[in-house]
Fold:
Amino acid sequence: METRTLEWDTPMYRLAVAQLDQTAKLMGLQENLWHRLRTPQRAHVVSFPFRRDSYNVVETVFGYRVQHLTTMGPTKGGIRYALDVDLGETTALAMWMSWKCAIMNLPFGGAKGGLRIDPKSFSPAELQRITRRYTSEIIDVIGPDRDIPAPDLGTDEQIMAWIMDTYSQFKGHAVPGVVTGKPIEIGGSLGRKEATGRGVVICMVAACRHLGIPVEGARVVVQGFGNVGAVSALLAHAAGARVVAVSDVQSGIHDPRGIDLPALDRWVAEHRTVEGFPGAEPVSNADLLTLPCDVLIPAAIQGQITGANAPQLKCRLMVEGANGPTDLDADRILAQRGIMVVPDILANAGGVTVSYFEWVQSLQHFFWSEDEVNARLTQLMTKAFADVLATAQQ
Ligand code: GLU
Structure:
């Protein structure tokens, strides 16, 4: 290994690389391929001045776009707006995107991008200006056949619309294929918003079947009530499971009898938090992870299950909705304890899979029905789950 520190060497990058090293050794991967996969092929770092709504305040904003591997086709992956975004985190996430696309047989290499900001502290006007400026800074490296962004933590379809519009203004015509996860009205795909959560639940059902856990009545705990967590909880409930606890950034709620998910959804639409939902007990995000349950779905942020709390988990199955929620110590402990883990690069790959469908629809200007999207997603996820399980058993 190099003696000089790599610019992207951070704890999260080290986790991704340690996972790669472990797997490369196990599968006897050729050294030259292995080393190619350890580092990002292209890493773009940008900084720009940004004027807040309060006219005299000008801040310097840092942004990234990492393209891990350009061999497989254009690169693909989300853009996150969060305060911990840095080159190491973005690189780790881009590496995971490469593996995710490979598992799903999608014609993409992995990418990821982000801005180091707290999007909640910005007005809609500020978010629009910052998104357009970031897009301008990376405009030469993105494009439908180059690198296709999508939503991730802290970004949504509105942000994707601004990226598409900035890119389209630059080209002089509408280019819907430059982003996925965009609003339906401008060429987004039906089913994309729910796709990650839907994929999580497809994996949950398949894993339950494998373990002999009946889905009907299975106790499910979900950490995170963003796009991934909320849809996972709703669809698990719809599949007959008993969702006994959920949480958001602020706090969680617990009801061993099972939470009425459609009612909770209406509560959150009105109050913007799960906190205070009638009939449920409050529970902290940390305690939620160790509640007795059949299935634990961490669907918030990275680094949640560690060597410290893995011995206390009381689930039989964990399905990773978030990217990188589990560290290597925890992985080892969970394996020893016989807790099955469906890893993020499979469990949350439903998002990028429907992104692929959206990209294809955008390129062809030919749109699919929601049933078609969901049926194809189910087909690809079910096959990927079976393939990964067979490899793991080998
Ligand atoms: N950000 C999502 C992920 O981590 C989706 C990426 C995409 O759709 O390109 O998988």
About this structure: The mean pLDDT is 97. The pocket of glutamic acid is lined by residues 76-78, 150, 152, 180-181, 323, 348, 351-352, 355 (CB under 6 Å). The longest strand covers residues 42-51. The CA atoms of residues 48 and 133 lie 8 Å apart.
